[in-house]
Structure formats: C-alpha cells, structure tokens
Amino acid sequence: MSKNLSALSFRKGVEKNVFERMVDAADKAGTAAKNETVHPLGADTLFGDAVTLGAVSFYDFLKKENEGKKVFICNGSACLCAGTQDKLHHTLETHFKQDEIGHICCLGRCHQGGALQYQGKNYSGQSDTALGDLFKTGKGDHEDRYAVVSHLQPAQLTAEFPGIDEYYAPFKKLITTSDRDALGTELKDSGLRGRGGAGFPLHFKWSSCRAAEGVVKYIVCNADEGDPGAYIDKYLMEQQPHSVLLGMMVAGWFAGAENGILYIRAEYPDSVTIINEAIEDLRAAGLLGQNILDTGFNFMLKSIKGAGAYICGEETALLASLEGQRPEVRTRPPFPTIEGLFRKPTIVNNVETFSNIHAILSMGGKAYAQIGTPQSTGPKLLSLDSHFANPGIYEVAMGTPLQTVIDLAGGFKTDIKAIQIGGPLGGIVPISHIDQLTVDFESFKQAGFLLGHAGVVSIPETLPMIEYIQHLFQFTADESCGKCFPCRLGSTRGKELIAKARGDASYKIDRELITDLLDTMEQTSLCALGGGVPLPIKNALEHFQSELAPFFKA
Fold first, then answer.
1. What pLDDT, on the 0 to 100 scale, is given for residue 29?
2. N- or C-end of the chain: fewer Cβ atoms within 10 A?
C-alpha cells in the first residue's frame, strides 16, 4: 500500500509536495485534522480521507489537540535540567488560559533554558517583565546568543563566510574541470563519516546512490534531527547556511540528482527563513537552475518545513513524511540510496555531514583525513547547555579529549553528576568518566556510551536520576511512530514502572523485569528510537546504583 502512495505522491512532484500542502492548510485553518481540510487533500492526492487523516493527526502542529494553542513551552531534556520550565509555565498561566498553552520539543535554546515559542518566534531566558511586554505588544528580543569557539586552526565549520564567489569557487572548479570518479576518490580518502549519530562512511552511501539504476534521484538534508540539547544543525543553518547548501549541491552533481530538499524542523523558524534567503542568493548568482555554468548540470534546492515529530529525524520516517504519508519507519533493506524518496534513489545526510564537504573540496580528502583520528576523521561540533560557564557551539578535531571541550567552555557553573551526550538516545556519562573519553565514535562505543549528534545535556546533582529515567521513557512513548510493538509498548510500560515506583514507596521494580524490557526494546525495535533509549537507562542503572537502589528490589 505504501508504495502505491509513494507513486501517487511522486505524481505531484517536489514543487507541489503533498506534505507541504498539509502544513500550509494547517497554518491557514489552525489544524489540518478537520474534515473540511482532510477531504480536499485526500481527494486531490487520491490518498483518501483515512490515509490523509492518519498522516496529519500524527504531527504536533497539525493535529486537532493543538488547535487554539497560543504559546508553546519547551519540555526538552536541557530545559528540564535547567530547572526553568515550572516557573515559566506558572508565568504563562498569568497571561493565557491553560488550554492555550501547548508543549514543544526542542527549540534549540538549550544554552539558556526557559525556552518558549510565541507567534512563530522562539524566546529563552526571558524575565517576567520581558514576557509581559512580549505578550502585550507582540514584540520582544528573540535573538539567539551563544559562544562559538573553534579549537581548530584554521577553523573549518565555524570559519567566517567570505561571500558566495569565494566560498563556491571549489564547487565551480569541481563541476567545470573535474570528474565524478576523482571526487569519489577524494571522499573515500577523507574518511568522512555521517555526523547524525550512526557514523556511516559517506563515500559508501554516495557511491551507492550514484550506482543505483534510475533517471530520477534526490538529495535530502535531514534537518529535522531534534535531539534535546543539540542545536548544532540550528547553528549551521542560521550562521553557516551555505556550508549546508554547497554540500547538497556537490551530492547532486556526484549522484546525478536534480533536486535537493531540506526538511527543516518547524521548531526552528529562523532556520527556515535564513535557508530560503540563502537559496535565493544562489539563484541570483546563477548557481541553481538549468545548465549551471554551462556544464549541463541541473539542480534545484527547496526547503520544506516540518510539523513537529521527533521521529522524522529517522531517515525513512522523514521520507514517508515528505510523501505525505504517516511518518512511520520503513524496514531496511532496501536502503534509501536504492529506494528512497518516492521510492527513487536518494542520498539522505544530516546538516553537519553536508557542511563538511566544503573542507574536503578545499583541502583534499587526504589532508582532511589528517584532522582527527584514523577511524574518526575531520572536525566535530558540540553544543553545550546552560550549566556550562560559557555555553555554545565548540569545534574540535575528532579525537580531542572530552575534558578539553569542557575546559574550553570554562567548566560547569553548577554541581553536575553526569552528562548525556547524543540526545535522549545517547549515553549518560558520570562525571568520573569524562576524563576517559575522547570526541570520536570509537572512544564512546568502547566505554559503553554514544557520541551521537554530540549535543551535551548536563544532569545536575539536584535532579533525581529516577526522574530523568522517567523523562526518557516518557519522551520515547510520546515520540514513537507506533509502528513496532517494542518501542510503542516498551516505552510506555517503562514509564509506568518508574512512575509507580516514584509514587508508591511500597512498590519496588524487579531488576530482571526492567532488564528484560530494555533488552527487548534494544534488540527488536525497528529503529534507533526504541532501540537506542535503553542505552542511557542502562548507563544510569550501572553508574548510579546507590541513588536508584530505593526504587528497586534488592
């Protein structure tokens, strides 16, 4: 059935994208989950009402439950650990009715806390007075401020943008004088691995799509990775947008694709605006469109705004979403490079991965590989939360000691017992283990943790670890696509176990029971959401045994 829906969606094409029209309909009507909205969409696409309603009702910003919400408060891990949201919620209740306040995750204001979205703009760290003025006048300070520091000399991902002509000179040289085999060699020599968390070698993925049969191919930028604590993608899209776009253009030239799509989180409204402006600048410079630089290369870029669904950070769910289907994870194989968007060969990489391509073009693959370690090459960005003395974006070479990153940020300004790196699916690293880790895939894996996207959330001494575990289960239960039982039911049962133990002093959790639950989720979930959340919970159970002992059977 889903393949037929993919084919129907393909008929509408990229410019008349089905999902985009669902979002537009919700923007106009307040929700897309209304009969008067669903029926015309279903009839026009031939999806029918049931399939269309099944899709739109999944998203936070399209479903009927969020109709009439006037303000959204962030409930992500970083804001939870910042301890700002209860007070913020109380303040909002003095300005709005309870049913006008919604929840959202995550706004990428992890460096400050107190995050909310109002009238399509994000705010954080606002005083009660500033909030009062904002809600009264509709005007407030929504500028996003944080440190941007590079430990590399010269900086790569955080270097100052020199202008389109200079920045795109390596791209122009590539498509006018080089060939695809030569680029393939440079990509292989670079050793670049995907920065979305899995660390898959980029040249394998790109070469697979290039070799795949089919005239129509696509390049998709996964800009919907919404790990709480990770605002790396947000930084790149808003302060280094051309690094992302150039990487996609190179991928299109290499694989033979003519369309690139950026699927950008609705929670990042400034990213959508800035990326669209950068695309227009490229059009004006003659670097997008038909027969670019008289080379015969045709390529277009388009951004599509998401609608609030963490699972769309999983590449196959994202592709289903772009097709207007319910964003459920697809079984693999076939992989997206063979059967991706509209079931056509597709390269899907995240924002930071594409942003590394400029460095490879500029310095060459072998020189790029000299940055970092033999297994984990190149620069890496980390985003640090509000518990650091100088929170922000930090660029280091892969293999840099984790303690060095913390020292660069001035250390912690509050008492911290652990950090979670890599979002809600990333490992929980006790403070005592920080000096044993380096910023690379191998170090974290060998120690039983996960580098992931490298967003850092600090867990303060004042936050009970049992509460944080419940938060992780709750997050997974809320964000599961529901397709597989282990994730959908396992996360809910885990949340219930923890909640019961916290609320009833006479109840103790059986360790064998929760271990079996976590093992089942880890081994049988369809994707990394259900399969990944057991890691941090197991880390907590291992490293915080004494703190958690009162909640478990001896």
1. 79
2. C
Please report the pLDDT score of residue 99 as a whole number. 93
User: Cα 169–171–174 angle (5° rounding)?
Assistant: 110
**In terms of DSSP bridges, do strands 379-384 and 392-397 run parallel, antiparallel, or are they unpaired?**
antiparallel
Neighbour tally for 408: CB within 10 Å: 21
Q: Contact at 8 Å (CB) between 323 and 5? A: yes
DSSP letters spanning 270-336 = HHHHHHHHHHHHHHHTT-SEEEETTTTEEEEEEEEE--S-GGGGSHHHHHHHHTTS--PPPPSSSPT
Per-residue HEC secondary structure of 61-76 comes to: CCCHHHCCCCEEEECC
Taking CA atoms, 391 is separated from 113, 412, 424, in Å, by 11, 9, 19
Q: To the nearest whole number, what is the mean pLDDT of the chain?
A: 95
Other CB atoms closer than 10 Å to residue 242's CB: what's the count? 23
Mean pLDDT of 423-438: 96
Is the pLDDT confidence value at 236 over 80?
Answer: yes
Task: Please give the pLDDT value at position 39.
Answer: 87
Look-up of token digits 């009402």: 49
List the Cα angle 414/418/424 in 5-degree steps: 115
The answer to whether residues 262 and 255 touch, using CB atoms and an 8 Å cutoff, is no
β-sheet bridge partners, residue 220: 261, 348
Query: Where on the phi/psi map is residue 20: left (φ > 0), alpha (ψ -120 to 50), or beta?
Result: alpha
Mean predicted confidence (pLDDT) in 354-380: 97
Q: Is 116 exposed, middle or buried (0-12, 13-18, 19+ CB in 10 A)?
A: buried
Average pLDDT score over residue span 96-111 = 95
Q: How far is CA 17 from CA 1, 274, 289, in A?
A: 19, 21, 19
Return the minimum-mean-pLDDT range out of 9-23, 141-155, 469-483. Answer: 9-23
| pLDDT on residue 393 | 98
Task: State percent of the chain over pLDDT 90.
Answer: 88
pLDDT value at residue 262? 98
Say how many C-beta atoms besides its own lie within 10 A of residue 353's C-beta.
24
Burial of 96 (0-12, 13-18, 19+ CB in 10 A): middle
Supply 211's token pair.
Answer: 């070799």
pTM surpassing 0.90?
Answer: yes
Contact assessment for residue 56 and residue 62, using Cβ atoms and an 8 Å cutoff: yes
Q: What is the DSSP letter of 186?
A: H
Q: How far apart are the first and last CA of the chain?
A: 50
